[in-house]
Each structure stands twice: as structure tokens, then as C-alpha cells.
Request: fold
Amino acid sequence: MMAGSGKKGPTADSARGNSSGDADGQRVDRRQKAQDRRERLIAEHRAEAASHTFETSDEVVIDGNAFLKPTAATKEEEETASSASVVSVGEPSSSTLSGAQMPGWQLPQIGGEDWQENPDPVAESDPLEKARVRLAALEGKSALMARGGAGAGGFSRTLSARAEEEVRHDQCAQGRRVAVYDEHLHAEGHALPPFEVYVHMPYCYRRCGYCDFNTYVTQDFGEGASQRDYAATAVQEMRRLRLWQEMTGQPSRLASTVYFGGGTPTLLPTRDLAAMLREIQTLWGLAPGVEVTTEANPDTVSAASIRQLADAGFTRLSLGMQSAVPHVLKTLDRTHRQKNVELAVRWAKNAGLSTSVDLIYGTPGESMDDWRTSLEAAISLGTDHISCYALTLAPQTRMGRQVKSGEIAPPSDDDEAAKYRLADELLSAAGYRWYEISNWAKPGKEDRHNLGYWRGADWAGIGPGAHAHYGRLRTWDSRHPLVWTRQIRRQILPWAGSEWVDDTENVEETVMLGLRLREGLSLDRVAQTAGMPVGAATLERLQAEDLIERFDGPDGEPRIRPTLRGRLLNDAVISVVLDDLL
Ligand code: SF4
Reply:
């Protein structure tokens, strides 16, 4: 619905021209119609907003201003809202017209609270506030409050075992468990997993028709929710999150990787990216040999900006190339030219950065020759790493709607399988080795940050919609930049929700993630996690059907990984293994 501003080219009548009297009358008519249309759109939005949250991946443009389009809320979004804490932020900046400021415009409903009417969260549901109260009761309020203002250097483990237990079993206002860290993980003899930091920058200069990421072309939603203020607000979230980790007794670990994703992080001035990285270093510390990646659109970097990134401590640049074929790029709404990708890679190499490009296959109208051209172009760049993703079209995206209406054909499974095989063949021949289903790298150049996700690392998620992982606890931030900013300015940890992964989900995660990797799934680990081994008959069947191969891991423990056929049918392999275990 309402997929645009209604701005169209001249009508046949206006193009033909009219007498001036008629023209004046028609201008008034047109203005009135435009006004009526605008009011109708706003009324429709208001009606929908009363019962829905905003689906952030879609926008409506009204007279040049992009607004979020309301669609059905997800279950998580309806449940939401936990929050809390300390640091204050600067004054709101001036703002441009935004949906939030439009008279009568409704804001997302979060946890049953209307944030326009009542922007204050339920303070007692805030995880940091809850930890604060517990500690105040258990260890003495004055000591706690003194620590609350401690700087980065003052962090140390403060919770007693009893307090940790209290927090672990605490419930948030919605009845969710807000336990903070699964001590059992290492109490059972496991080493602590690595710790990573992900920062989500939720702005792009235009929205690609296939994209359903949490990103916005509106640069300023008001109240400081803007691209310009993003870094300062993200820093405040980092500080509060670090304090929450401290107060809930989470073990202190240096960040082994940092990843700036989006959105388009390189739309920000380099000094903003550098400032956020400095804050991460101050709050968590960076491990020796840390990997620091930023995603980049080839149109938003220069030789100078890449050099500045390298000087600031960035070690890796991941470029959205998608295709080398102009008509495919056009279908994807990508504006860059292949020449810009080549320049960006060269600048990154000159600055000493590791390089990666993303490709997409299965775009409507892309032939096998087109895909071969893109693969060969990517290989010729000599990057360290290449990702190849099948095009998936969420129904709320522009291309998703075009597929639904029959305007374009949906991606075909057979076509995508053939293109995956071609990618694996050409990339392998060029010295890239697959290490995850969609990722190939030269030896030692794997994306360590994403490997951490698949291996079960812990990570902090900063920015609108960012997810985080602390042992068995999962949290996710409010998706809309305005809601997220408001929460932080209200001194709240800007979570939209959290959940505790139960034993069954833990088994599912272990199997699903392990079976994506070349390093494979440790059968001993599965047996320990599930409390039973994968049946011998199941393994033999999968092997006989050329879906898995069995091998020994570095310590001699038995492992399985998908064959090429198993990568193409990965969901089926995972289902068979899980059916055996659960
Ligand atoms: S540049 Fe990337 S994040 Fe931004 S709209 Fe396009 S695909 Fe989405």
C-alpha cells in the first residue's frame, strides 16, 4: 500500500497545456487533491498505528519525507520493553520534519506503552535498575551508588554469589527471565567463549528494493534520533551496557572482534566511527590482534577516509559489491559502478586493510553468464574474502511486493543451486576455501567476527535493532531509531526484549550453527548438549545420501560437516539431525 509519494510525471492534460484561467483552477484543484491525499494517508496511518507497531524495513514517502509504514507487529515486538540506567546525553539537536513530529502521528507501541503519551519505561522492569536494586539491598546502597558513577577503569566484578543467583532467577515485568550469564557454561569445564561487539548503524542514503534490514533513509527523526547524533547516542548505550554487565557479574573479557554493520556505517564521518571504536576500547579493551571490520558502500569511501579508518584501528573493510553487471545492479537498486568497487579495494589494500566483497545471486533477470561475470570480477579484485548470498525477498520489500503482484519472477531454487555450485567451483579454483555455507576466504582470512556467531561467542549489540548474546540470554534493542534514542536519553538500556534459551533451543542452535561450518559439528559436543548422541543409523543415512562427511577434529573428536550437496540441502540435514535428538 502507499508505496510512494504519489509524485508522478505530468499528466497528459498538463503536458498539452491549457488557458491560464483553466490552469489556475486546475492548480487549486491539484493542491486540494494533494492535501486530501496527504490527509487520507495520515488518517490511514493513524488507524493502523493504533493496532500495529511499525515494520522498520519499509517506508512511505509523503511529499519527499520518508515515514515508516505500519505493518503487523511481530510477536516479540508486541511483548517487549525492558530497560534501565545512568549516563545522560547531550541536548537534542534541531530536527527536520519527521513522522514523529507530524501532528497526530503515532509512535510505535512498545510493551503496551504508547511512547508518545508515556515515554517513560516501566523503571522496575529495567535490567540495570533491577541489578542496581538487588545490589543495593545485598551489598549496601551507599557503596553501590558510589560505583554507579565509576569510569571505565573502575569496573570490576562486584556481585556476590548470592546476588548473582538472585539476578539470574529474577523476572522482568513481563515475566521474562533476565538472567545474565550462564555460569553453568564454564562451571562445567567449558572455556569462556570469546566476546565480540557489534554496532548497527541504521541509515542508508537510499533503500535497495530487496533490503529488509533495519535501516532508514530518513536522516533525522527529531529528538536527537539522527544520523548526525548517532555516534554520541551509541556511545551512551555502550556505557550503560558495560555498567549493566558489571553489575550483573558478567566476566570481564576483551573484545576479540568489533563489527560495524548496517545500514551504511561509512555514511558517518570517519571521526564518528573512530570515536565509537575508541569507546569500545575504553570500556571493554581490545584483544591483541583484534579484528575491526566496517561494512561499506563503495560510493561512500575515499582513499583518505579509508586511510583514516586504518589509522583509527580498523583492520578490515567489507564492501557491498553484489554484482558486476549493470542491469543486475539496476534491478537491485544499487547505484555504484564496478569501478568504485575496484578503487575501494585498492585503497583498502594500500592502507593495509583486509578486504571482503559481498555478492548476491538469483536476482531476477540475472543469467548464468551474468553470475559468472560477477564471480570473475570479484576474484580479479584479489580480496581476502568473498561472501555469496542467495537473494531472498521478504514480502514487505519493494521487490517482494513485485514478486507477489507477478511483476517479476521469484528467484528459482534450481537457478540458485546452479549458481551456488558455480560459485564454489570458481572460488575454490581461485584459492578461496568455503568455511561457512555462504562464505569463502583465503587461508587465515576468514571473517572472525561472523565465525564467532556460528561458534557460540558472546557479543554485545549496540544500535537500533541490534541483537546480543550473553551465555543463554538473548537481548535485542528497539528497532526504531527514535524509540531507541528516547530510551537512551531517558537513561534506559534500550532493549525491546530479552529471552532465555532453554535446553531444547540450545540443542537446536548448536546443531544449526555447527552444520553451517567447514570445521563442522562436534558429535561429542552435541551429545553433551542434548544428553544423548546422534544415532548411528541417522549418521549412516546422511552419509550414504552424500549429505555429510565424517572426520576427526583437532583433538581427534568425531565431527560431521555438510558435503556440497549437504550445503545445498542444509535445512534438510539439520532437520534430520534434530529429529533424531529431540
Ligand atoms: S545499502 Fe545495504 S543496508 Fe542499505 S538499503 Fe541497500 S542493501 Fe539495505
Confidence is low (pLDDT under 50) at residues 1-24, 41-124, 139-180, 182-188. Residues 259 and 450 are 9 Å apart (CA to CA).
